[in-house]
Amino acid sequence: MLKVFRVALYVVGGFFVYMVNLLSFVSLAPPNKLGVVAKLGVMALFGVIGLLPILAAMATSHFREWQVPLGATLLSGVGVTVFMILTFLCMTLSPELLKSFPDFPQNAFSDYLVGGITTASLLVAGIALVRPRPKLQTDAERQVRV
Asked: Could you give the CA distance from residue 58 to residue 4 in angstroms, rounded to a whole number?
């Protein structure tokens, strides 16, 4: 039962990873003087809120073997975000859809600089956490080989 709870906590954390990543692509209107500061503040708020269930999931396993689940959480959040951004781009490239929805916000997700940096950072962190690591030999294993 504890494993199910841990997985649920990682899923909630992954949702917030997705939200932070998706918010990094949101463009704010130019008259907004707090544009970048407000955007980064909201991203940081969602990041902190998402960190809480991830830390709780890590605590349920006493902070042992947390690298792979956390890496999978980051990679899944990035994967869903990339899928959503590609879907949004395909929707904006469809003239039929734009005729059907005249008020469609075409420039809503157009901050590709911040979004790309955030996505690349989370992707690299996720891959680094998931990669297999060489096992360290214990003293007992070294003595057996001698």
From this structure: 13
Burial 57-81 (b: 16+ CB within 10 A, else e): bbeeeeeeebeebbbebbbbbbebb
Measure the CA–CA gap between 92 and 102, rounded to whole angstroms: 11
> Per-residue pLDDT tens for 123-146?
999 999 998 877 766 666 666 655
Question: What tokens appear for 31 in the block?
Answer: 């008259």
Contact indicator for 74, 118 with CB cutoff of 8 Å:
no
Cβ count within 10 A of residue 43: 19
Q: Which residue has the tokens 């792979």?
A: 68
Q: Is the pTM of this model over 0.90?
A: no
DSSP SS3 for 138:
coil
